[in-house]
Every structure is written in C-alpha cells, then in structure tokens.
From TrEMBL:
Membrane topology term: Multi-pass membrane protein
Source organism phylogeny: Bacteria, Bacillati, Bacillota, Bacilli, Bacillales
Listed transmembrane segments: 12-27, 33-56, 88-107, 112-129, 158-177, 244-269, 289-308
Superkingdom of source: Bacteria
Subcellular location: Cell membrane
GO cellular component, one term: plasma membrane
Keyword list, A-Z: Cell membrane, Membrane, Transmembrane, Transmembrane helix
Gene behind the chain: livM
Protein name: Branched-chain amino acid ABC transporter permease
Amino acid sequence: MKRLLTKWGKGFGIYLALMVVFPFVMPDEYYRSVGIIIGLHAIVTIGLCLVMGLAGQISLGQAAFWGIGAYTSAVLTTKYGLSPLVGLVASAIIPGLFAFILGRAIAGLQGYYLAMATLAFGYIVQIGITEWEPVTGGASGMISIPQVPLFGGSELSMYYLIWAIVTCVLLFSLNLMHSRVGRAFRAIHKSEIAATSMGVDVRKFKLNAFVVSGMFAGISGGLYAHYMGILDPQPFGLHESIKFLTMVVIGGMTSIWGALIGTVLIGFISEGLILLSEVIPGLQGDVDTIVFGGILVLIVMFMPEGLVPRIRSAYEKAQAKKAKELAAKTQSGERVERKAAT
C-alpha cells in the first residue's frame, strides 16, 4: 500500500482535493446531488473495470446487481424495520451471492455468449423486480426508504459518505491491480491459455472478479436507495448497464483511474444533455442513449485503449523524448569540453 501511495501520490492528492472542495465550489444542492450520483456510479464502474479490464469478461448486467443491492436494503429497512446500516451490509452480501451463482453458471462462456448471458440476467432481474409486487412494490416502486443515520443525514454528509466509500473502493482496486492477484488477472486478460499454462486458476480468478464487482454494485445500489428515498425498476435495466459500460470504455478498460474519470465525464455529459433538453424540447426522450452509443462507437474506433491510457502513453513518450534530448545535449557538451582540454 505504501508503494502504491508513493506511485500515485500526486494524482491521489489531486483527487482528494477535488473531492473535498467540490461541494463548496458548487454550493447549489443540485450540483451536490450530481456529485452524489457520480460517486454512486463510480463505485459500480470501478467494479466493472475489474471484470472487464483485468479479468477480460464482458458484463451487460451490471445494473442488475445495482438493483438487487438497492431493493435488498430498501426491503429490509421498510418492511422489516432493520437499520439502514444492516441493509447496506446485506446490499453487498446478497448481490455478491447472485454474482457467485451467475459466475459459476457462466464460467465456461466467452465473448458474445458471455455478453448475452449477462444481458439475459439483467432482463430477468428487472422483470423479477417489476413482477414481485408484494415485496418490491412492482412498477409502482417503493417509498419512505429511510436515510442512512450518519452525520445528520444532510446532503453534504451523504456526499462525503459516498465519496469516502468511493475512495476505499479506489484504494482497494488499485492495490489489487498491483498485487499478485492483479498480475494473474492481467495474464488472464491477455491469454487464458498462457495463464493456465503458468498455473493460474482462470475460473477461480474470473469468479472472484465477478463477485467483487457484484458486491461493489450492490453497495452502490443500497446507498442509492437510501439517498433517493424512493425506488422503481426503471433505473436498473439495459440502458443503465450500457451507460456503465460506456463510462469504463471511455476512461480505459485497463485503468482504475480511467473508470473513475470516465464516470465523471459521462456524468457531466448526461447532466448537460438534461439542461440542454430544457432549452431544446426536441432533445427530450432517449437522446442520451444515442449520444452514449455514439461516444462508445467513436472510442472503440479511434481510441480503443481509452482516454487515460492514451494520455499516459503520450506523457511517457514526451518524457522519453525530453530525456533523450537532454542526454544528447549532455553528450554534446562533454565532447566540446574534451576538445577544449586537448
């Protein structure tokens, strides 16, 4: 962890400063709520990055785990009177169990077949939430979901709670990425056959990534339920899964920081489209789906590695060029000195 913080010290410091300052730079409650939603999405996308970027799996059902976590905590607190803190713990465990069962069932699938299996799971969960009316409230949803009883339950305290969890998830994921487990994930991503020949249990590591990703999404869902106070099945479908996928791809599938930055970018683009639709009525409806789909296509075509890896690569090339020029200048100066000496 110490080595990790040393490596990412400057970037992590900038991240913390922006996170702390944002509510005061944008004191309007609307922008605080935008920051909260972006934080909730970031927890999901960091988990999705572990699945896609490290373990090399395609998941189109991440919103399903988000929904399972949300409804788990909402049902336990509204129907059984349990504390929201207990509900949040359950919102991590139950989606993790679903992810374990699904991961075991689809362990042998790859590529399009894996994508279709997770897509089908997403549809099943959304239909199940809608039809299980006695428990979930069906299409009408649930109301009066209690707030998390920490720091007074204000908008500002919820913002810092959620971003504190984002920070924990970020540190865990960065540490995992640079550990022995992370190296095994990257080996699987490059070649499952090569990883197997080196003694890596491919199915075990894929399943672990899937479970961790499901738990992250579930925690985010539980927090979403308690923040919103109401729930309905609509936000937990394919549209949201595609949005999560776009966030990861635009930032860079192999970069944890990329998942976070992609989430922030798409979050503000989404809010910008909402504000623009108030000025241009023709933009109302599912225009955001078209925009996100277009962004996804353009990124895959022209920047498949994603934004953060591309910027990092350009920076490393610039540093290498600078070092080469400096070495050439130093060598030239040494030659001049030798000539002068003789």
